[in-house]
């Protein structure tokens, strides 16, 4: 499952354009700005609920996509059907937590080996330098 995409008919170009949205970091206001940037002929963009309640610009895309909504561009209104949200069960969340813990342990184990190898190279370099300094003293 990737990022949500919305295909919107642009009024000036009379063509459709697909916008990819980030559910957590993008807001409705960001979406409006993307539309206006793509088509300079867009003067007014508003998102409303199905019962015509305006959706605030600060609302996250994740929240916007929880229900169907209306997208008003200039004088045109488009009904947007949101994809059905699949919620994770408690068991699935637990499994994800277990996987996350295993990945963390693996990273730590690999990182320790990497650190040990780096230290070994460092100590061998010091040993080589000391041996070179010792040669004149032994003579």
From TrEMBL:
Keywords: Calcium, Calcium channel, Calcium transport, Ion channel, Ion transport, Membrane, Mitochondrion, Mitochondrion inner membrane, Transmembrane, Transmembrane helix, Transport
Ranges in a coiled coil: none
Location in the cell: Mitochondrion inner membrane
Keyword Transmembrane appears in the UniProt entry: yes
Topological relation to the membrane, as annotated: Multi-pass membrane protein
Catalytic activity, as annotated: Ca(2+)(in) = Ca(2+)(out)
InterPro entries: MCU_C (IPR006769), MCU_fam (IPR039055)
Residue intervals passing through the bilayer: none
Signal peptide extent: none
GO molecular function terms noted in the UniProt entry: calcium channel activity; uniporter activity
Domain Calcium uniporter protein C-terminal intervals: 38-139
One Gene Ontology biological process: calcium import into the mitochondrion
GO cellular component terms attached to this protein's record: uniplex complex
Pfam families on file: MCU
Principal location listed in the UniProt entry: mitochondrion
Purpose of the protein: Mitochondrial inner membrane calcium uniporter that mediates calcium uptake into mitochondria. Mitochondrial calcium homeostasis plays key roles in cellular physiology and regulates cell bioenergetics, cytoplasmic calcium signals and activation of cell death pathways.
Recorded family membership: Belongs to the MCU (TC 1.A.77) family.
Protein name, per record: Calcium uniporter protein
């Amino acid at each position: 499952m990737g990022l949500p995409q919305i295909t919107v008919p642009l009024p000036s170009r009379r063509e459709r354009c697909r916008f990819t949205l980030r559910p957590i970091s993008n807001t409705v206001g960001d979406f409006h700005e993307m539309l206006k940037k793509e088509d300079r002929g867009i003067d007014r963009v508003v998102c409303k609920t199905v019962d015509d309640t305006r959706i605030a610009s600060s609302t996250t895309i994740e929240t916007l996509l929880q229900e169907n909504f209306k997208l008003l561009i200039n004088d045109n209104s488009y009904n947007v059907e949101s994809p059905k949200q699949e919620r994770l069960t408690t068991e699935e969340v637990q499994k994800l937590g277990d996987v996350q813990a295993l990945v963390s342990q693996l990273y730590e184990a690999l990182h320790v080996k990497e650190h040990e190898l780096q230290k070994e190279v460092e100590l061998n370099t010091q040993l080589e330098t000391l041996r070179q300094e010792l040669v004149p003293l032994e003579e």
